Amino acid sequence: MIDAKVVATLKEKITVIRNNGKSVYLVGPINLPVNLDGETTIFQWYCWLKCENMAGHFCDDGSYDTEKIIETLSSSNLAEMQQSSVLVYGDFAGADEALIRLHSICHTGDIFGSKRCDCGFQLKQAMKMIAHHGAGALFYLANHEGRGIGLFSKAMAYILQENGLDTVEANLQLGFVDDARNYNDAIQVLKTLRTKPVTLITNNPRKLDALINTGANVEKRVALWGDVSEYNRKYLETKIVRSGHLRNQDDQV
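Predicted structure:
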């Protein structure tokens, strides 16, 4: 029997997002002090979970039972899966203007600081931009490794890139599409946390299109380029030439 106080405490922090018969469970906000350039910046952290990733019957009809969720956690082996999250700064729901970034996980760039890409730079820079602006959210999308092909496949794609292929060619040769990422869950969470307009931090028009096509309230976008080096120059050129990434922020919604 789970302690009633535990159930009550957690129930206050869980939001159920239902869409087309499916549910996403959003837990938070949770205070998260973050080190940005040696200074502590306080974000509010949320994590979400697709209903179908949980073992047990409570997901079948989208019903919501905090105690059943807790009981199911230890048998669902969630550590073998990936869950996404979002860092919120300031009055994200109420501020007139807010920045957002949909950031795809990059194990090599975000964690190890690899210079083969610009992902680690973009992650930190976007957090700084959001904090400096005063309101915003960074969505960290955990099932987007390698543009959605997974870490193991990304490692093989890197080997092909070391043998002359570009990012797009390597993914295609492994049997994937250029970009397999899906933003639906993140957009559901965004709509739950904020209804006012947002400014999207991106160079990728596909992210912009994904938001607009699902009715998200996107006002404009701002570019995020930088950390160019001999190691990632071809990678960045491929983004522009093969994947249509935008060089600047002149192209508005």
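Summary: The first strand starts at residue 14 and ends at 19.
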